[in-house]
Amino acid sequence: MAEQMTGGCACGRIRYSATVHDHDAYLCHCRMCQRSTGSVSIAFKSVKVADVEWAHEPDWFESSPIAVRPYCRECGTSLGCKFRDSHEKMDLTVASFDDPSRFVPKHHFGVENMHRAWLNTEGLKEMRTDEHQLLIDKWVAATGSFPG
Ligand SMILES: [Zn+2]
């Protein structure tokens, strides 16, 4: 069942609307994605290029001879990945969607560079931002309130 979902970068300059047909997503662990996102792995949702509408065209980083990556040059948010010669499909970063909670990981890719210590983190101490007084104090001092 097709559904319109919106997303964008951290500063709000780049916005998109994408038609998704399910909530299946995956984690990529390849070194190119690790380097380009600064993350041990990156959650992607595969979509059709034709199903993505950019309200503001993203900047494109040529990350390798075979791939380009949409991002925002102002805030640095990684928005996805696409093969240079692909006009059919591309990936959008799950966390750049306005509601990433809808997506479910279905497989791992690039597992030869997977950092297994970061996979199963269940059982580690858990802390909330709204219970972290130092963080709350900094927000209140800077803006008068805590964004939650
Ligand atoms: Zn931005």
General description of the model:
- With 148 residues, the chain is mostly beta strands.
- Helices cover 12% and strands 34% of the residues.
- The chain is built from two helices and ten strands, in the order E-E-E-H-E-E-E-E-E-E-E-H.
- It has helices at 31-37, 133-143, and strands at 3-8, 15-20, 24-28, 42-48, 52-54, 59-62, 67-71, 80-83, 89-93, 104-109.
- It has a seven-stranded mixed beta sheet with strand order 6-7-8-9-4-3-10. The protein has a three-stranded antiparallel beta sheet with strand order 1-2-5, with no helix packed on it.
- The two termini are 32 Å apart.
- The mean pLDDT is 96.
- The structure holds zinc ion (ZN).
- Zinc ion binds at residues 9-11, 13-14, 72, 74-75, 77.
- Give unreliable regions as ranges: none
Distance between the termini: 32 Å
Mean pLDDT: 96
Q: Ligands in the structure? A: zinc ion
Q: Structural class, please?
A: mainly beta
- Please report which band the strand proportion falls in: under 5%, 5-15%, 15-25%, 25-35%, 35-45% or over 45%: 25-35%
**Distinct helical segment count:** 2
**SSE pattern, N- to C-terminal:** EEEHEEEEEEEH
Q: Nearest-angstrom radius of gyration?
A: 17 Å
Residues in helices, as a percent range: 10-25%
Q: Please give the order of strands in the largest beta sheet.
A: 6-7-8-9-4-3-10
Largest sheet, strands/sense/barrel: 7 strands, mixed
What is the approximate shape?
globular
Give the beta-strand count. Answer: 10
Layout: helices, strands, pairs:
Layout: E1 3-8, E2 15-20, E3 24-28, H1 31-37, E4 42-48, E5 52-54, E6 59-62, E7 67-71, E8 80-83, E9 89-93, E10 104-109, H2 133-143
Parallel strand pairs: 3-10
Antiparallel strand pairs: 1-2, 2-5, 3-4, 4-9, 6-7, 7-8, 8-9
The chain binds zinc ion.
